[in-house]
Amino acid sequence: MFAEFLRLAGQSIAHRRLRSWLTVIGVFIGITAVVALMTIGYSLEKTINSQISGVFGTDSFVIFGGDVFGRGGPHGGDAEGYALDLEALKSLDGVSAVAAVRRRNGFVQGKPKADGTALQGILPVRGLSYELVTEFESFVGELGVQEGGRLFDPDETSVTVLGADIAERLGVRVGGTILVAGDGSNELDLEVVGILLQSDDDPANDSFVSGMSQTDEDDTINVPYDTMDLLWGPAEDVQYTLVKAATGYNVDEVAGRAEEALAERGSEISTLTYTDLSDFVGSMTAAISGFLAGIAGISLLVGGVGVMNTMFTSVLERTKEIGVMKAVGAKNSHVLSIFLIESGLMGLVGGIVGSALGVGLSLVGVSLIDRFTTGFDMVWGIDPLLIVYTLVGSFALGAFAGLWPARRASKLPVVDALRYE
Amino acid sequence: MAGSVALLELRGVTKDYKLGKTVVRALRGLDLSIEQGEVVAIMGPSGSGKSTLMHILGALDRPSDGRATIESTDLAAMKERNLVTLRGQRVGFVFQTFNLIQTLSAQRNVELPMIFQGVSAGERHRRASELLGKVGLGDRVRHRPNELSGGERQRVAIARALANDPEIVLADEPTGNLDTETGTAILALLKELSVNDGKTVILVTHDPEAAEIADRVVVLRDGCVADDRRSPSAGGES
Prior knowledge:
The complex is a heterodimer of chains A (421) and B (238).
Chain A: H1 2-15, H2 17-56, E1 60-65, H3 86-90, E2 95-109, E3 120-128, H4 131-135, H5 137-140, E4 159-162, H6 164-170, E5 177-181, E6 187-195, H7 208-212, E7 221-224, H8 225-232, E8 238-245, H9 251-264, E9 269-273, H10 274-317, H11 319-327, H12 332-372, H13 384-411, H14 414-419
Chain B: E1 8-19, E2 22-34, E3 39-43, H1 50-57, E4 65-70, E5 73-74, H2 80-90, E6 91-94, H3 106-116, H4 121-134, H5 150-161, E7 168-172, H6 180-197, E8 200-204, H7 208-213, E9 216-221, E10 224-230
Parallel strand pairs in B: 3-8, 3-9, 6-7, 7-8
Antiparallel strand pairs in B: 1-2, 1-4, 4-5, 9-10
Helix pairs in contact in B: 3-4, 3-5, 4-5, 5-6
C-alpha cells in the first residue's frame, strides 16, 4: 500500500509543479550549505590526517616533556627538557627503534685565528640519535650537507655537524675542529664533519624535527647523542624522543607502557601518537564545521517552515478531495500517510538536489583552498554516511514539517469535507 | 416483501447540527426501510433533510438518535474506523459534481477505492478496466477528468462507485450537472445496476425524470417522510 501512496503523493506533487519546486528550493538551499560545509570540513580533516600520517606513519609516537597540548605540567610543554633513560626505553617490550634529541647551551670555541684569538660563545648544542636518520626519516626530512661534508656515522662521538651560519661565524670548515665545554671539566674537541645547507625560510619545507626545535637550524651545533653524555652526563635535557613500535604491536598500547615506564623513572613526559593527533585534529575540524553547519542549519529550519506552509495550502485546497477519499473508504491513517509521504518526498527531493549541489560546491571550495594556500595539498574527500544521513534527514524534515497539516487533513470530518467548496 | 430483513432500516432517526449556538434538527424521527435491489428516489425541497439522510444511509455520518442499521448492523454503535470499512466495502457514491481526483486518470480514479481496501495491483487494474468498459469508457481509461465530458466523468464516477462491488449505490443529484440527454443515459445506467446486478440504488434528486426510473419514490418534508409510494411503472411487487 505504501507504494500506492507514494505514487498518489508523487502525482499530487507533479500536478502542482511550480509550487512544489519553489518549496523544494527552500529546502535544498539549506541542505546545499550544510553538505558543502561538512564536506569541506571532512576534506580538511582528511588532508591534515594524511599529512600527519605521512610524518608519523601509524607505528611511531613522540615523547614530549610535560603535557603535549600545554595543559599544565611542570614544563608546560615548552620544556627545558626532560630526563630520559634511553636504554630502558629501548629494551621495553614492543619498541623497535628509539631516537632522541637533547639540547643544551654550551660554551663553544671556534678555530683560533692568526692572532691567537678565537670566537667563543654560549651556543645551542643539540645531540641527535643516529637512528633519527635511519629509522625516522619522515620526521627528519632531507638533511642536506654542503659539498665535501657528511652526517654522523654510528658510534662516532668526537664529531659535529654545524648549521650554516654558525660555521661561518666560528670560522670553521669541514675538517676543522671546535671545542665544546660541558659540565665541570668535561671538554671535547669535535671534528667538523659536515655543514648543513642554509635552511630556506619556507615553513612548508620544515621537517618535523626542525619545526619542533626552538632553535634556529642555521645557528645550531649538532653532535651525536652519546657525545652529550660525555659533556653533560645522563640526559635531563631531552626535547623529544621518537619511538617506533615493533610490527604487530598496537602503537597506543606501546606508548602507554612507555609513558608508565618512564614515569616510574621520574620523567615528566607525555606521549603523542598518530591516534592522539588525529583525534585532536578531528575534534577541531568537527567543532568548526559543526558550528558552520549549525548556522547553515537555520536555513533548513526555514525550508521546513516552507514545506509546512505548502502542505497547509495543499490541505486547504484539497479538502474536498480528502472528503472524497474518505467517502470511498480511506481511513484517517491512509490520508495521514499520503500527506506525510507527500511532504517527505518534497524534503527528499530537496535533499537529493541539495546534496548534489553541496558536493559540487565543496569541490569548488576545496580547489580554491588548494590554490590559495601554499604547502598544503588540500585533497577533496566525502563521507558517504553524510549523504545517507542527509537524505534520510531531509525526508524526515519534510515529513515532520508535514505532520501538523497532515494530521489536520486526516481529522477532517468526511461530511464537512465533502460539502467544502 | 417476503418478510426478509431490510437492507437498510431507519427507525426514529434524528440528526441535529450545531450552527454556532443554535441547534438545527435536520431529521425528526424518520422511519425508512429499503430492500435489496430496489431503486429508490428520495425527493423533497431544499432543507428537507435529503442530504443528511443520504449521509446516514451512506455511513458517512451517524444519527443523533434512533436506529440506523445496514443488514442489522447498527451504525450508532460503530467506531469511526469500522464505519470507514463499512462504506468502503458496501457503499458506492456518485456525486452531483462527480468529485473525481483531478490528478488521476480515469483508470486510477476507479482503482482508488480498491487501493484503500488493499486489493492487489493486478486485480485492481483488471477490475477497473472491466468497470470502465461496462460504463462505455473502455477507450478513455488514460484520460484525466478534465479531458472528459460531464457525462463521461459521471460514468467514471459510477465505475468508481462499483469498484469494491458494494450492495448499495448512493447517488446525490447524479444528473444535476448534466444536460437532459446525458442525464437520461446516466439514469439508464444506474437503473441497469439494479436490474442486472441486483444493486440497491438510492437517488437523492430533484429531477422528476430520475423519479421515473425508480421503483419507489420517498418524499421528505421537514426531516420526515411525507410520502412513500411505489412508482406505477415499477409495478409487480406487493
